[in-house]
């Protein structure tokens, strides 16, 4: 009996021979670093060059040193993904939030309802702004930035908050539209 690979996308998932060299290099780096290739890397590679362009910006915003901490960026990812009900991102970034905070309970609460998590004032301000910009972007005003400023955030940090919120709203739409399934490894990571 042959083992079938579970479906991870509504679209055909490309093989190594179907993608640009940059994609295979990223797959190989992921395999070395994590012990697996994230399904989102495999599924989005249908359009290899577009995937690499997305990855470069995503990597810059989420994985490189910036104006926010890794935990703050992952908090945004989980709040936005939970609100959008994006299974892939809520689970995969919930795993990252657990890793960066060392707190699996808070990470789980944030993914369902961030208001029930015991967040510090700065984290709560970020989560509240992420919810507003995700649910009602047409209602956002200059005054909505004041709670971020009140917890000590500067313009660079506020800009990064907006960029990360925007990135996850876009990524959630793609992941949900194409039915991306998270890797099993994420479920037990950092627990």
From TrEMBL:
Name of a matching Pfam family: CMD
Keyword Cytoplasm among record annotations: no
Keyword presence, Nucleotide-binding: no
SUPFAM superfamilies: AhpD-like
InterPro entries linked: AhpD-like, AhpD_core, CMD-like, Uncharacterised_peroxidase-rel
Keywords: Oxidoreductase, Peroxidase
UniProt domain Carboxymuconolactone decarboxylase-like: residue ranges: 50-131
GO molecular function: peroxidase activity
NCBIfam families listed in its UniProt record: ahpD_dom, peroxid_rel
Protein name as catalogued: Peroxidase-related enzyme
Source lineage: Bacteria, Bacillati, Actinomycetota, Actinomycetes, Micrococcales
């Amino acid at each position: 009996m042959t083992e079938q690979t579970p479906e991870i996308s509504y679209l055909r998932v490309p093989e190594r021979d179907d993608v640009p060299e940059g994609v295979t290099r990223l797959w190989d780096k992921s395999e070395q670093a994590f012990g697996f290739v994230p399904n989102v890397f495999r599924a989005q590679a249908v359009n290899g060059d577009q995937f690499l362009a997305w990855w470069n910006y995503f990597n810059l915003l989420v994985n490189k040193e910036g104006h926010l901490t890794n935990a703050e960026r992952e908090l945004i990812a989980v709040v936005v993904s939970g609100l959008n009900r994006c299974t892939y991102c809520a689970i995969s970034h919930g795993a990252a939030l657990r890793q960066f905070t060392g707190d699996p309970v808070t990470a789980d609460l944030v993914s369902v309802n961030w208001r029930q998590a015991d967040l510090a004032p700065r984290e709560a301000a970020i989560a509240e702004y992420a919810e507003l910009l995700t649910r009602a972007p047409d209602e956002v005003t200059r005054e909505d930035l004041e709670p971020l400023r009140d917890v000590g955030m500067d313009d660079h940090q506020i800009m990064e908050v907006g960029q990360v919120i925007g990135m996850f709203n876009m990524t959630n739409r793609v992941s949900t539209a194409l039915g991306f399934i998270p890797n099993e490894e994420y479920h037990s990571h950092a627990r």
